[in-house]
Input
Amino acid sequence: MQLSSAIYKYLPWGAGSLATARWRWLARSSILAENSTMPNSVSNSAIIIRSLTTIEELEAVLRLEKEVWGFEDADVTPLTLAVAMKATGSIWLGAFKKDAMIGFAFAFPSLEEGKIGFHSHTLAVHPAFDNRGLGYQLKMAQRDRALARGIAEITWTFDPLRSRNAHLNFAKLGVISNSYRLDFYGAQTSSSLHTNGTDRLWVTWRLADSRVEERVKGRRRRSETLDALALLEPLVRFNGDGNPAEADLRQALSRQRIAIEIPGDIGQMESSDIGRARQWRLATRRAFTEALNAGFTVTEFCRSIRGQQGPGAYLLEKVNH
Ligand SMILES: CC(C)(COP(=O)(O)OP(=O)(O)OC[C@H]1O[C@@H](n2cnc3c(N)ncnc32)[C@H](O)[C@@H]1OP(=O)(O)O)[C@@H](O)C(=O)NCCC(=O)NCCS
Output
């Protein structure tokens, strides 16, 4: 299905309070069934995830990119680049409710250390629709498209201090990570999500591995991960007043498993106390860097290990690949 450009006059962006009212109206009905699988496209309560085909649809992606990240124009993906990427094998997916794009996922072909795969550059869901499984469904659709093209691995990066992303990536999707990149996009960009630097965990999603297959079937490993975490003294942990406390590095790295805690809501902390958020960045940067250099792999993340508002924790293990 292609959307005619005439439809776009109804899209909400740029229409001020009318736009806000429209998002509230669109958000009212339920979205996707959690853990549903989608061979080609998914539709539920009028939400459809499908490949993007027109320049107008790519323009809608870039508007949503600007809105979700709060970018200035200079930091938004150029339309001409998006078009060229589309023409050369990238996967562009959009989630639509009625005529409005409410989420998207973009992955381009990659050649990393001689291995052909996809690198997923952006995934976004409009805040009016978050926490309803839409991010997960977009990733499932991306997985389907990659597998259909004979590609079994997708990589991407995310900010390891963002608990929601950590939960989505490790607990729901089953990624692993053995690489930490310091200020990957530079020390700061115009995005409101990048005020505390742009350190990233580089994750690998092995699409056909049993580990991923079991997550796709809805089996998560929360209780096993909690059991493992319960036995560990975290390398970085909450010290009671909300600041990070660091354990003895040498001792921790001599073990087979270690834990690294993070705040439950770093965005809120960045708004209320950027100094404290920065302390968390520096403590977790040191812990991840040292642990990954020592041969650990990040294998799991468990959110809210001490109740709803508490911290989450990563599990890192010495594993053979
Ligand atoms: C990351 C993003 C795509 C997730 O989209 P989404 O539709 O909310 O994702 P889902 O609903 O599939 O999964 C979110 C999960 O995190 C959980 N969650 C929400 N807040 C959380 C928190 N503070 N800590 C841990 N988990 C949290 C949700 O409950 C849900 O898990 P569940 O299904 O087990 O209950 C969306 O938040 C977004 O666009 N963020 C800004 C851009 C971004 O970070 N993109 C990704 C990197 S490029």
User: Anything to note?
Assistant: Residues 274-293 form the longest helix (20 residues). Residues 34, 68, 122-125, 130-136, 158, 163-165, 167-168, 172, 264-265, 303, 312 surround coenzyme A (CB under 6 Å).
